[in-house]
Request: fold
Amino acid sequence: MMRIDIISVLPDLLHSPFQHSILKRAHDKGLLEVHVHDLRAYGLGKYKQIDDYQFGGGAGMVMMIEPIVNCIDDLRAARTYDDIIYMTPDGERLAQPLANRLSLQQNLLILCGHYKGIDERLREHVITREISIGDYVLSGGELAAAVLVDAIGRLLPGVLNDETSALFDSFQDGLLAPPVYTRPAEYQGWKVPDILLSGNTAKIEDWRYNMALQRTRERRPDLLDEE
Ligand code: ADE
Reply:
């Protein structure tokens, strides 16, 4: 059983994504547990303050050290985390190999940022890994965390019905996935490639591999350059 804890100032934003589809199945099968924690509960003083003006001036609030450390310490008292991840656009770009590696862990803690971000000292002393889901800025780390948890959760053994299917995803073999078809074999003159109806498994495998290669060459030649 993998456990993922998420610290957020907008926990409601995170409840829905994990209650549907594959992540729900992962949870129902006892393979993945996701717990969302409201950082506000660790806010300071009467107003449960979690952010403050930045030293040196400038617009935008910065998330303070204490609420975050207090929250993390509470969670750490119960278990050891393999990684304490901060979602941030200047982190390591998420790609399939990183999702694969993280899916092998037991306990992950994910911190979602807001405003201008978190006090840099947290990144130096507490955070062990920083992840970006792409070169664009979201209004907070929650949606990025949901993307990360989805990418990890579907890789856990037993989550997908057909255990092999994640192996054939785009990117798993460094290639984009080949095209797929289903019934009807012909729709108003649009035909499924004959080879897929031939029953010749070896030829179909060949065709799929070649289509994957062709598609990758056309759309993502950078994937072929990497190795
Ligand atoms: N927070 C804001 N933008 C983000 C991004 N692109 N990736 C991860 N976390 C973020």
